[in-house]
Design goal:
Blueprint: E1 3-8, E2 11-16, E3 19-25, H1 30-34, E4 41-45, E5 48-49, H2 55-62, E6 69-76, E7 79-86, E8 88-93, E9 95-99, E10 104-109, H3 116-129, E11 134-138, H4 147-157, E12 163-169, E13 174-178, E14 188-193, H5 200-210, E15 216-219, E16 227-233, E17 239-249, E18 253-254, E19 264-265, H6 273-279, H7 285-295, H8 297-307
Parallel strand pairs: 10-11, 11-14, 14-15, 15-19
Antiparallel strand pairs: 1-8, 2-3, 3-4, 4-5, 4-6, 6-7, 9-10, 12-13, 12-17, 16-17, 17-18
Helix pairs in contact: 3-4, 4-5
């Protein structure tokens, strides 16, 4: 398994009613060492109010340069407090997979790292040995990463000379990126997306959807991040942010601020993972996984589609 990495503090977040709730603390990370806990509600990051920010932008505020500190303001048991946390490089698994019932494989790509395409191939081959004949590709909460890796993954499912994406730079120069080899896999696919699927995950979704390679895209419209921006010094001593390049799906499909629309829209349950687990204390790990799956309405719809 290739481990992706980022510089941050090691928390998992979920948004509920506008609140940014910590739903997981990675072991051995600055978040654990600082005393942050599950169910803490983040209200500010470095004194910047995140109530009106989306989850993706909140995560960006938390991430930063290695060996720098970030002050996280939380509400715990009704009381607000500041916790200083040091940022460091966090290692994460880029993919997880599991064979479900009726030959359906489940593959969750958390982010696109340098070798994610190899992880995907390895996961698929392992599940095929166990009898997998169909695949659910989960890109929910995938904020992007290595575009080259996303391109290689698209090529696993698309035949040669299919458009994956295009770019147009500030001078209007257009470059189209095509697949270079024939598809390695031809089984049915359903992609899961939500409003936190961004950047490279949108490119992969659009490539497979527009080339009619997926049976359905289930979930929510993706985030809509399709530009690369640079910061330049201004004559007044400040800084200007300018778009260097914009990404498009096949056929110049607009992604920036638009996102990729699902073919089947399904809103997720309002209950958080933590709430579901608390309601089912005492259950075995296997029972808990089954219960969590039932609360995942988008996943259940994907399973239903592949069983048709």
């Amino acid at each position: 398994m290739y481990h992706g990495k980022y510089v941050g503090i090691g928390v998992e977040l979920q948004e509920k009613d506008g609140n940014k709730i910590i739903t997981g603390i990675m072991k051995g990370t600055p978040a654990e060492e600082s005393g942050l806990k599950e169910n803490d509600i983040i209200t500010k990051v470095n004194n910047i109010n995140v109530k009106d920010k989306n989850l993706t932008d909140t995560v960006k505020e938390i991430k930063g340069k290695e060996n720098t500190d970030v002050v996280i303001t939380i509400i715990r048991n009704g009381k607000e407090q500041d916790i200083k946390v040091g940022r460091k490089e966090i290692q994460i698994d880029s993919t997880t997979h599991k064979l479900l019932k009726n030959g359906i494989g489940y593959l969750d790509i958390k982010s696109f790292s340098e070798n994610s395409d190899k992880d995907v191939e390895k996961a698929i081959e392992e599940m095929q040995k166990e009898g997998m004949t169909k695949l659910i590709l989960d890109l929910r909460y995938n904020g992007g990463g290595d575009v080259k890796s996303a391109k290689k993954i698209a090529n696993l499912f698309l035949d040669k000379d299919k458009e994956i994406y295009s770019t147009i730079n500030a001078k209007g120069f257009k470059k189209i990126v095509y697949t270079e080899t024939n598809a390695k896999y031809n089984f049915d696919i359903v992609i899961l997306t939500n409003k936190y699927s961004a950047s490279a995950s949108e490119l992969l979704t659009a490539a497979l959807k527009e080339n009619k390679r997926v049976k359905e895209v289930v979930g929510e419209t993706t985030y809509g991040k399709g530009v690369i921006q640079g910061v330049y010094p201004s004559s007044t001593g400040g800084a200007l942010k300018a778009t260097i390049e914009e990404y498009f799906g096949p056929g110049e499909l607009k992604l920036n601020k638009k996102g990729v629309e699902p073919t089947i829209k399904v809103e997720q349950t309002k209950k958080t993972r933590k709430e579901v687990l608390e309601e089912n204390k005492g259950k075995t790990e296997e029972e808990l996984q089954e219960i969590l799956m039932k609360y995942d309405l988008q996943l259940q719809k994907a399973i239903e589609v592949l069983q048709q």
